[in-house]
Amino acid sequence: MHRKSLLSRRAFTVSALSAFTAAAGALTAGAAPSGRSGSPRRRRAGELRGVWVATVANRDWPSRAGLSAAEQRSELLALLDRAVERRLNTVILQVRPAADALWDSPYEPWSQVLTGTQGADPGWDPLGTAVTEAHARGLELHAWFNPYRVANHADPSKLVPSHPARRHPDWVVTYGGRMYYNPGLPRVRAFVQRAILDAVRKYPLDAVHFDDYFYPYPVAGQTFDDDAAFDLFGGGFATRGDWRRDNVDKLVQEIATRIKLVRPGTEFGISPFGVWRNATTDPLGSPTRAMQAYDDVFADTRKWVRESWIDYVVPQLYWNIGFTVADYAKLVPWWAGVAQGSSTRLYLGEALYKAGDPAQPAAWQDPAELSAHLTLAKDHPEVRGHVFFAAREVVADPIGAMTRVVADHYGERARTPR
Fold it and tell me: Which CATH number belongs to the domain containing residue 289 in this structure?
């Protein structure tokens, strides 16, 4: 565990809060753009039914780079309409897939997933349109940001010349054939927050959403080279792992605080890898034998929930019931126990993308598998909803697994749990 006291990790000092307040004041100076002011809408408590819309590599939307603005908008609205038809109530849209933006950001270039050229103006406001059109349909819009991924390649020359990663090459670590911002550098953490908070200031987002990528997933035979940063900032920690976890903790705590300062009605949620630690490693862990978020990507996901640092958590329980290494039926009660007594709401991430995939185990060839997940979760009152990965499968539904979920569990529209 970290050597720093629990108190120092849980609360900021008065001076730090003053600094955050000043920063928030700077971010909120001036009027918000027309049509973007106000706070996210509040509704009576209900069940969250969500879908992720992944934009990285044009996975879910837009269907390909280079579509016209009208075509992009039409596809986006069709996805929102489909969410309504499936009686969902929340869309989690990826708006910063790789140190870029799906809005007019002063910090980072327009994403190449829109036009095919990084930095090229798409001629419309994707995030602003998504927020407005989602709210018009009774949907919440959660903006999904990837904090540290710079590019899914290792060539800085492929980035637009004004890209922060080119202007600050010392911020970048190349690992596994990809580029990442170094989470161990305070300047990087500050920059990432500024980039994210620009969207919070401009748009009435219902939530800011992070996925499971903090430090990158391990690549066999390779080392994430943060030696220089550890030499500068790692003093006082027993191990490099403790220092890395503290870096991620700082990001989580700081962005959570600053979101509330900029726009109090906007929540903050994280969707981590579904296993915190295995019980064979830690008696507090789950009865699993999988990769461990705590040890492998340096994300102490259990602590974030137990300390109520985040408004909601969506562990990615992307395994079938009975899967030996990580059994969905065993992970649900474990996460329910973690959430119990905290103020962090628990939703479950569901692997709709596996349904009907011939490369997956036999359980995923059964259209009833996902419906069985929701039935099982009903035994645990801490579970307050589900999020499905991802939009492409919600639309295509190759073996009818989503249709089965809707028929068995979503007979009527549901309010969101806020």
Answer: 3.20.20.80
**Do residues 154 and 138 touch, judged by C-beta distance below 8 A?**
no
- Edge-to-edge strand order for the sheet containing 178-181? 149-151, 178-181, 172-175
User: Does 42 fall in a domain?
Assistant: no
| Alpha carbons 155 and 165: distance in angstroms, whole number | 11
The pair of structure tokens assigned to 201 is 């200031």
The pTM of this model reads 0.90
Domain that holds residue 122: 47-409
**Does residue 91 surpass a pLDDT of 60?**
yes
The number of distinct structural domains making up the chain is 1
- Beta bridge mates, 348: 386
Contacts of 391 (CB under 8 A, 6+ apart): 51, 52, 53, 54, 60, 61, 79, 82, 83
Residue 150 domain-assigned?
A: yes
Taking only the tens place, the pLDDT of each residue in 57-86 is: 999 999 999 999 999 999 999 999 999 999
Neighbours of 336 (CB within 10 A): 17
Please give the Cα distance from 9 to 3 (Å, whole number).
Answer: 10
Any domain includes 25: no
Peptide bond into 390 cis (omega under 30): yes
Domain assignment present for residue 339? The answer is: yes
Q: What is the pLDDT of residue 121?
A: 98
pLDDT digits (tens, 9 = 90+) for 261-294: 999 999 999 999 999 999 999 999 999 999 999 9
* Beta partners for residue 142, in sequence order: 92, 207
**Token pair 């008696």 in the structure block, residue:** 283
